[in-house]
């Protein structure tokens, strides 16, 4: 036994000293599961399937751990079919997280989980997401995540808010524009006619911004016709954070 271990300064790996092999004995049973029901805060020991999701599918009733997009809205009701959580309350909570400046664009950003939750809610989230895009109070990060969420929801009702981004002459956020193009391409067939109509309208109207609108809409149409969506960093982060991997060149929801 080394000097450090003799002095009681063991190098604990979970509940066993990696230097001398000693176990924590009585302390071994004194795990601290208060911060995470499945991982001891003292030694890092783990145990499976110990979280309590009975009251809230997305938040453990014991330790407060969260998991993304786990509510069951399949019955299209006002409450989760599993835990009874209120859909409108969840929607407002998730939009609030989305509008927060968060901790930066990474898979650990809480907005990644918020987007996952909004996508799982589906059509009820479209109008609130549109408001995030159109509000002067929204920060750029929130608007980018909102556009990404609309593309992931993938319904025809998501198309108009995304085309509005392409039409906005005051938009100076090139990254937001790229995300909107990719989101429209992800939606696929339902976006084709509105994109073509936007090009025709821009040709007739002319003036400042018409050239750029035709270019943006044309790029979205090209991706739809090719059946491949050009990835952007927000989609990559979203799929890394929620799914664990991201395949570049995802197929659109539908194709003409």
Description:
This protein is mainly alpha-helical and 256 residues long. The protein has helices at 3-6, 87-99, 110-121, 126-134, 140-153, 159-167, 174-187, 192-205, 210-226, 233-242, and strands at residues 12-13, 16-17. Helix 2 runs antiparallel to helix 3 and helix 3 (110-121) runs parallel beside helix 5. Residues 243-252 have low confidence and may be disordered.
Which key features would you list for this structure?
single chain, 256 residues, Serine Threonine Protein Phosphatase 5, Tetratricopeptide repeat, 2 domains, 10 helices, 2 strands, elongated
Short description:
With 256 residues, the chain is mainly alpha-helical. It has helices spanning 3-6, 87-99, 110-121, 126-134, 140-153, 159-167, 174-187, 192-205, 210-226, 233-242; strands spanning 12-13, 16-17.
Instruction: Give the helices and strands as they follow along the chain.
Output: HEEHHHHHHHHH
Number of domains as seen in the coordinates: 2
Span between N and C termini? 72 Å
Low-pLDDT runs of 5+ residues are 243-252
Kindly identify the CATH topology of the largest domain. Serine Threonine Protein Phosphatase 5, Tetratricopeptide repeat
The CATH level-2 architecture of the largest domain is identified as Alpha Horseshoe
Shape field: elongated
Q: How is the secondary structure organized here?
A:
Elements: H1 3-6, E1 12-13, E2 16-17, H2 87-99, H3 110-121, H4 126-134, H5 140-153, H6 159-167, H7 174-187, H8 192-205, H9 210-226, H10 233-242
Antiparallel strand pairs: 1-2
Helix pairs in contact: 2-3, 3-5, 3-10, 4-5, 5-7, 6-7, 7-9, 8-9
